[in-house]
Amino acid sequence: MVAIEQAKEVAAKLAKDLSPIAVILFGSAARTGTGNDLDLLVVTEQDGMYERVGASLREFYRRFSIDYLVATADAITQEFRKGSPFLAIVQKEGRLLFMRDSVKEWVQLANEDLRQAEYLFDGAFYRGACFAAQQAAEKAIKAALLQKGWELERPHNIRRLLSMAEEFGLNMAWDDEDVDFIDSIYRGRYPAEEGLLPLKHPSVNDARRTIAFARKVLTQLGLIQGASFK
Asked: What is the pTM of this model?
């Protein structure tokens, strides 16, 4: 049997030897934490890396079995757009073990979501603005946690992320009512769940409140980019 700790060891070796874009664990070990082997997707910048990946992994073969796929980021993007069932499973169940420049990516995405929220607000798309702002806050907190050595998890709940931020010594101030409101936005993102939103259809004030919260989070974490929202 092989477990997540061995998977992390393998990913660290690949990161050191090859500096791939990402190493993703999928299969039974990703779903349950243990498995008979490790199933890995190694994302690279260029083709022709399969043999180099195999050479990097050779030292582990005496201990456990590893099945790996190697693909460039461009190839994965093309297959994903075609609706690849395999990549859909990887996206749903996979566990990211390594991502190069991951903090930078999370910070950029957080700021992009915040700008998107402000753009949607200007167009009076208040539901979209609320959701984009929630995404900005979530990704900003995750970026800050990753900087502190946190291992990426899947929680979307802002209150849970803020609690983890406290554990990692990130000093932030927030209003509990705002946090509850932001979390209700994520839970009510689909039509069947609309009733979970406090007002069902967010108003201009709801959207403004959500964007202000997201900008406050990014500002407190020192991650804000761009002009202030009016």
From this structure: 0.62
